[in-house]
Design brief:
By secondary structure, the protein is of the alpha/beta class. The chain has one domain (about 5-209): Vaccinia Virus protein VP39 (Rossmann fold, 3-Layer(aba) Sandwich). The chain is about 35% helix and about 25% strand. Helix 4 (about 120-130) links the parallel strand 4 (about 105-110) and strand 5. The longest helix is centred in the N-terminal third of the chain and has 18 residues, at about 5-20. The chain is globular and about 45 Å long. The protein starts with a helix and ends with a strand. The relative contact order is 0.16. Bound molecules: S-adenosylmethionine (SAM).
Length: about 210
């Protein structure tokens, strides 16, 4: 097995799960994920970190997809630990394997950075939501300061292969708006204690209108 294959299969998933559980990230997850209501779909549910934050009393169904590999295994193991009925499937956000208008909430945390086609993924999340359904997002991406953004451009080419295809330069809120959501921004900032090009973060609620 080539070193890069070994890293993708074994090293990157562990590093991603560890990084995604950092304290400042968990504090933001705690603001966003418990807002989920009704029938809930999670995009990129790999790692399973969000599962502990859902309020089971507010949720009637939980489904999630992830492309597969170790991160999907972690998500299934987390569902077993939580002891709830979770419909976790292998799949990609560019072709979400659920019918139109079938969920009340879509949750997308730290995933738009990694998908192949961000615009298509946002369209797909809109498609599977019912009218009035809400997309809860918490993502890192393109920084507003030009100097930081220039560093993101420089770092991204070597960051991506190390971190499972993660981009540093993607738009966040504007991409959700472009996908047909009315967005209520909830916050935007650099996470404390980390290099600024890696941690420009935006979170909010997009409503399917
Ligand atoms: C940085 S991890 C974040 C995992 C999780 N969403 C979280 O908040 O901890 C990015 C996730 O996006 C998933 N992913 C990558 N490409 C994807 C795609 N095309 N569709 C859906 N998920 C994808 C990865 O497998 C991985 O689980």
């Amino acid at each position: 097995m080539a070193l890069s294959d070994f890293w993708d299969r074994h090293g990157a998933p562990r590093l991603i799960k560890f990084a995604c559980g950092a304290k400042p990230i968990m504090e933001l997850r705690e603001k966003v994920v418990p807002m989920a209501r009704g029938e809930v779909f999670e995009l990129g549910c790999g790692g399973g970190i969000n599962q502990r934050l859902y309020n089971p009393a507010a949720i009637t169904r939980y489904a999630g997809i992830d492309p597969g590999g170790k991160l999907l295994d972690y998500a299934r193991a987390e569902a077993t630990r939580k002891g709830w009925r979770a419909d976790i499937r292998q799949g990609v956000g560019e072709a979400i394997p659920f019918p139109d208008d079938s969920f009340d909430t879509a949750v997308c945390t730290y995933t738009m950075c990694s998908v192949a086609d961000q615009a298509q993924v946002v369209r797909e999340m809109r498609r599977i939501l019912r009218p009035g359904g809400r997309l809860l997002f918490l993502e890192h991406g393109r920084a507003p300061e030009p100097e930081v953004a220039r560093w993101q451009d420089r770092i991204e080419p070597w960051w991506k292969p190390v971190m499972g295809g993660c981009h540093l330069t993607r738009p966040i809120t504007s991409a959700v708006v472009a996908g047909g959501f009315a967005v209520e921004p909830l916050g935007a900032r650099y996470l404390p204690g980390m290099p600024r090009p890696l941690v420009w973060t935006e979170w909010g609620v997009g409503v399917k209108v």
